[in-house]
Automatic annotation (TrEMBL):
GO MF, one example: DNA binding
Protein's recorded name: DUF3283 family protein
Gene3D superfamilies documented for this protein: DNA polymerase III-theta
Pfam entry (one): DUF3283
GO biological process: DNA replication
Length: 69
C-alpha cells in the first residue's frame, strides 16, 4: 500500500517533520556530533505548545530507542 504524504493535512505533515528532526538530533547526540543544548534550542524555536510537546515526546522516544541518556 502506498501513502502519499503530500496529501496529508498540514498539521500531520508538520508532526512528521518534527519527528524527523527529533530523530536526527538524537542520532547526532549519540554520535557525539551534537550537544544536548541543541535539542533544547530546537524545542524553544517551536511556537505552538502542542507541536513542542510532540517534539519532546519524539525526542524521548528516539533516546529510548537509540539508547541515549
Amino acid at each position: 500500500m502506498t501513502i502519499n504524504l503530500s496529501k496529508l493535512p498540514a498539521d500531520e505533515k508538520n508532526k512528521i517533520e518534527l519527528d524527523k528532526q527529533a530523530s536526527f538530533l538524537v542520532w547526532k547526540l549519540r554520535e557525539a556530533k551534537a550537544i544536548p543544548s541543541e535539542i533544547i534550542e530546537q524545542k524553544n524555536k517551536i511556537a505552538d505548545e502542542q507541536e513542542r510537546e510532540w517534539f519532546e515526546q519524539s525526542v524521548a522516544k528516539y533516546k529510548r530507542v537509540m539508547g541515549v541518556m
